[in-house]
Structure prediction request, 58 residues.
Amino acid sequence: MATRKAFALRIDEKTLAAMQRWANDDLRSLNAQIEFVLRDALRQAGRLPKPDADSAEE
Prediction:
């Protein structure tokens, strides 16, 4: 499993509330929803790193 790192996120109140509603609709935690949205944006922008050959075999 990938190593996780914690960090503080400053976000305006309205954006946070909207993310929380979206997370609730998708039955995810707020943290999981933020990760989901970030990964999706990275994938769409072609910014995700390519998987390692070693990782794909496991």
